[in-house]
Amino acid sequence: MLESSCRIQLSTALHFFRKAFATGQETSNVAIKEQFYGRIKNGVLNALRSQILDIDGEINSVWIITNMCCISQEVTHLFVQANCIDTLTQLIRSPNQRLSNQTIWAIANIAADCPSCKMMCRKPKLLRVISYFHSYSNSVSPLQILSKLLQNAQLLEDTERRHLIWCINNILSGGRATMFSPVARSFIRAFSTTLLDISAVNRMKCGPMILWTLANLVDNTEDTTRIDMLLSQTLLIERVLLMFLDETNKMCHSAALRLLGNIAVGNDTQTDQLIEYPNFRKVLNSAMNSQEHRSEAAWIISNIAAGDPRHVDYILDDSDKFYSWLLSGIHSNERRFRKETLWIVGNLLATADQHQRNLLVSLGITQQLPILLQMDDVRLIEKAATTAAELLRENPWQYKLYLKLDILGCLEKTGERVSTCTFLF
C-alpha cells in the first residue's frame, strides 16, 4: 500500500507506519524488521514528493521520518542520502502549523544525529527559511527580501516555539556555521528578543538553549561582525550577566559564560564594551571562585589579556589576589584550568607594557616561565620564549634567577638566542 499510487491506500499505509514507529503513549505493538527500512524510506519520500497527499498524509509522512531518525545513525543516513532535507525544507514553509512544526522536529532529530548530518542541515536555504520563520514567530519583522515566506505564518504556541529553538540549537551546535550576514542578524535579533522575554523563557524552560545558540552564532573569529550584532541588542548583555549571577538559574550558567567568553575573543573594541559592564566583573569573580567554572573563567581572562595594555590593567585591578588565583591554576591537577592559566601568563607578558611587566616581575612571574617553556603547546612555547627573552633584557638583574631556574637552557631548546655578555658582571 505504501508503494501504491492511490492516495487512500497511501494515507492508510502512512497512518499505519506512523503508529508502528511511534513512541510514548502512541507506541504500537507492531515490530518492523530492519530489512524493510529502505523500502519504507522510499515509500515515504516518494509519497511526500508526489504532491497527492492531503495535510494529514504529509504530517504522518514527516512523523515517520521524525521517529525513524531516532532509531539509529544508519537509518538517519538512509534519509539524508535520499535528499530528505531538501524535501523537509519545502515543508517548513507550509501555512499549516502542525505540518511545519512536525517538520522542524524531524530536522532537529536529523541534525542531532552526527556531524555530517548537522552540516547537511546547515544548508543556506534551510537556514534562511528557519531564521525568518523564527523571527516572525517572535513578532520581529523579517528582512524584506524574504518577507513573502511569512505572509501566512502565525504566532507559535510555547511548545511549538520551544521545538523551533531546539531545532536551531541542534543545527548550530558543534563547529562554526557559515551563513550570510542577514541570516545571522535575523537569528541574533530573534533570539535576543526571546531571551529578554523573561516570562516566556521561564515558561518554555529554554534559557540554556537560547544562550548556547547565541554563543555558537558568535563563535567565529573570522567574522567578528556577529559580535557587533550581538552587542547592539539593547539590554541583552546585562540580561546574560544577570542570568549567570542568578543562583536559582544554574542551568544557564555554563551557556551564559561561554557566550560572554566568545565576545571576549573578539577585537579590542568589543572587549572594551564587555568589560564596561559592572556586572561583568562580578561574573568573572564568581566564576573564578567556582570549581565548576574556573577553567572557563581562565579561558575568558586569557583572551582579555591578549588584547591591549588597558585590558591588562583590568585584569590586574587587584593584582595580589589575582596572582594568588593564577598560581592555584598553574599548579592545579585540573588539566584545562592549568593550561588556561598558563595562557594567561603568556598573554599577559606579551601584551603588558613595561610598567605592567615590572609589576608582574615583582609578583614573581619569572618563576613560572620554566613551566610555560616546557608545555606541550607549540604556540604557547613560542610566545613564552619571546617574552622571556624580552623580560631578561628589561630586567638584567634577574640573570642569576634565569640561571638558577634553567630558563636560558629552556630558551636554547626553543631556538631563542639571548646574548649573555650583557649579564656577566
UniProtKB/TrEMBL annotation:
Transmembrane segments: none
Gene3D superfamilies linked to this entry: Leucine-rich Repeat Variant
One Pfam short name: Arm
An example Gene Ontology biological process: protein transport
Keywords: Protein transport, Transport
Domain of life: Eukaryota
Family recorded in the similarity comment: Belongs to the importin alpha family.
PANTHER family named in the record: IMPORTIN ALPHA
Name assigned to this protein: Importin subunit alpha
The species this protein was found in: Caenorhabditis tropicalis
Taxonomic placement: Eukaryota, Metazoa, Ecdysozoa, Nematoda, Chromadorea
